[in-house]
């Protein structure tokens, strides 16, 4: 017996929405952790729930990941590495 396909739309019942958020948040963080281990990559995951509560996961220091991200974005916006492949080119230069 397989899983039932659900329609992706906002869950109106507050309790069901919170339960679904908790389960999916855990699943997303587990996948992020697995990806970082299997592929030796740095991952920073930031989530704000509907009550503005911050939830985060990072495979390394979150400040270092965010700093690296802002440096790449600044380079892209400054035009120094703007090319067709975009961010992948900027990553190569790091």
Description:
With 94 residues, the chain is mostly helical. The chain is 52% helix and 11% strand. The protein has helices spanning 14-39, 62-78, 87-92, and strands spanning 44-48, 54-58. Strand 1 (44-48) and strand 2 form a beta hairpin. It is extended, with a radius of gyration of 18 Å. The mean pLDDT is 86.
Q: How many distinct beta strands?
A: 2
Q: What is the strand arrangement across the widest sheet?
A: 1-2
Biggest beta sheet summary: 2 strands, antiparallel
* Classification by helices and strands: mainly alpha
Listing every helix as H and every strand as E from the N terminus to the C terminus, the arrangement reads HEEHH
Calculate Rg over CA atoms: 18 Å
Overall pLDDT confidence: 86
Gross geometry = extended
Count of helix runs: 3
Task: Tell me the strand percentage band.
Answer: 5-15%
| Uncertain stretches | none
Question: Helicity level, as a percent range?
Answer: 40-55%
Distance between the termini: 48 Å
Write the layout of secondary structure elements.
Blueprint: H1 14-39, E1 44-48, E2 54-58, H2 62-78, H3 87-92
Antiparallel strand pairs: 1-2
């Amino acid at each position: 017996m397989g899983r039932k396909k659900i329609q992706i739309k906002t869950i109106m019942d507050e309790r069901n929405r919170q339960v679904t958020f908790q389960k999916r948040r855990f699943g997303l963080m587990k996948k992020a952790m697995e990806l970082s281990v299997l592929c030796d990559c740095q991952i920073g995951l930031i989530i704000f729930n509907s009550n503005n509560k911050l939830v985060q996961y990072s495979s390394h220091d979150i400040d270092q990941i965010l700093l690296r991200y802002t440096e790449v974005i600044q380079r892209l916006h400054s035009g120094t590495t703007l090319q067709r492949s975009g961010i992948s080119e900027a990553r190569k230069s790091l």
